[in-house]
Amino acid sequence: MEIERKFLIDTLPEDLASWPSVPIEQAYLCTDPVVRVRRSGEEYYLTCKGPGLLEREECNLTMTRETYLHMLTKAEGNVISKVRYAIPYGGYTIELDVFAPPFAPLVVAEVEFPTVEEAQAFQPPAWFGREVTWDKGYTNASLSARGLPPGWEHSQG
């Protein structure tokens, strides 16, 4: 089970380079249901996600680089490239995704939780922008299939 909240970020933290990061590339074989392939550093995964926004089933299977590259040729829509930073915050980890073109300058923070109650009680840091947990347009599957939501740059903050 994946339980997470998602926020737009207007201004990057000044100490961003001091946090661990990994390049991520991902593409979607299907967006309903979500079936994704991902390279995270030198690790490769096939992921299936159930319906939902705050809370959803998620299953990850490891794969080889060769299998990933083959599956990547079957993907639909845009391939998403981003750098993910891991920033500790109050017992949680902020996963800060800095997107590469064609999605730059989009920056999204995701925070995962063990329970829905903890997710609902979470108080984001002051540098977080508008919450987009409930906006399907900011799921990576939607970004891949449809691009950035219309007017997104005017809706931050």
Fold and architecture overview:
It is globular and about 40 Å long. Strand 7 (76-89) and strand 8 (92-99) form a beta hairpin. The two termini are 29 Å apart. With 157 residues, the protein is mainly β. The protein has a 9-stranded antiparallel β-sheet with strand order 5-1-9-8-7-2-3-4-6. It contains 3 helices and 9 strands; from the N terminus they run E-E-E-E-E-E-H-E-E-E-H-H. The longest helix has 8 residues, at 65-72.
Number of helical segments?
3
How helical, in percent, are the residues?
10-25%
For the sheet with most strands, the description reads:
9 strands, antiparallel
Mean pLDDT: 94
Strand content: 35-45%
Output the structural class: mainly beta
Please give the radius of gyration in angstroms: 15 Å
Strand order of the largest sheet: 5-1-9-8-7-2-3-4-6
Question: First CA to last CA: what distance?
Answer: 29 Å
Q: Helices and strands, in N-to-C order?
A: EEEEEEHEEEHH
Low-pLDDT windows of residues: none
**Number of beta-strand segments:** 9
Give the overall shape: globular
Label this structure with key terms.
mainly beta, nine-stranded antiparallel β-sheet, single chain, 157 residues
Give a brief outline of the structure.
This protein has helices spanning 65-72, 116-121, 140-146, and strands at 2-8, 21-31, 34-40, 43-49, 55-56, 58-63, 76-89, 92-99, 107-112. By secondary structure, the protein is mainly beta. The longest helix has 8 residues, at 65-72.
